[in-house]
Amino acid sequence: MRVAIFDFDGTLYAEETFTILMKHLKEHPIYQSSYKSFYRAIVPPYIANKLKLYPASRMKRRSMQLYLEAFEGLSKQEMDAYFEEIKVVMQQDFNPKVLDRLKLHQEENLHILLVSGAYTQFLERVTDGLVFNQIIRTDILYKDEKVYTKNIINHINGEQKTLKVHEVLNDHQIDWENSFAYGDSFSDLPVLKLVGNPVAVKPEEKLRKLATERGWEIIE
Questions:
Q1: CA separation (Å) from 43 to 36, 61, 65, 66, 209?
Q2: Taking a C-beta distance cutoff of 8 angstroms, is the pair 168, 113 a contact?
Q3: Is the dihedral of CA 49, 205, 115, 12 positive or negative?
Q4: Residues in the chain where the model's pLDDT stays below 50
Q5: If you write DSSP's letter for every residue of 108-165 in order, what string do you get?
Q6: Cβ–Cβ under 8 Å, residues 189 and 158
Q7: How far apart, in whole angstroms, are the C-alpha atoms of residue 20 and residue 26?
Q8: Is 73 helix (H, G, I), strand (E, B) or coil?
Q9: Is-contact 25 38, C-beta < 8 A?
Q10: Of 7, 127, 162, 166, which one is least surrounded by beta carbons within 10 A?
Q11: Phi, psi (deg, nearest 5) at residue 73
């Protein structure tokens, strides 16, 4: 079985997810009151990361955890509704070239995976209309059917993405050499290296240099 693995941020979605999530919370008529406390909490790890005192992976996980605290006690239906509100705006920024590749690989009957550190319900809502065989993502924790943030989420990031890809494909014999992976960041490298056809999408400088050296396809 051949697979095609798509990253979300900067690849399928041309922008950064967390930027629009912050804007949505800040301007939301119901939940905007939680934005200030979220912002105050996120500044210290953000500054520490910029000063190289706090790893990027930990900063991202902390940010995802703090964001959810604004929705403590909400139901799954309320979270679905919240994410649904930004679906149309986000879909306008889906990369058309990557969408074409997604359609092509579906026509070729490849097994399609979307791999992202974003929240499960968020991805389900904003990719509505697209078809993936499997989505690897970060689950929101619920207790008694309400958002529960006292436990730390398992943020899917970096090397964890590769581990999860192998985990979900464990029951299949994969033709890695004739499979595809799409990513924009150097942090996507472990997944890109899994396949015989890695594709860098509008890559950041470090990944662009590597992709050029290795003769990988680059989508601008």
A1: 11, 14, 14, 11, 31
A2: yes
A3: positive
A4: none
A5: TTPEEEEEEEEEHHHHHHHTTT---SEEEEEPPPEETTEE--SSPP----THHHHHHH
A6: no
A7: 10
A8: coil
A9: yes
A10: 166
A11: 90, -5
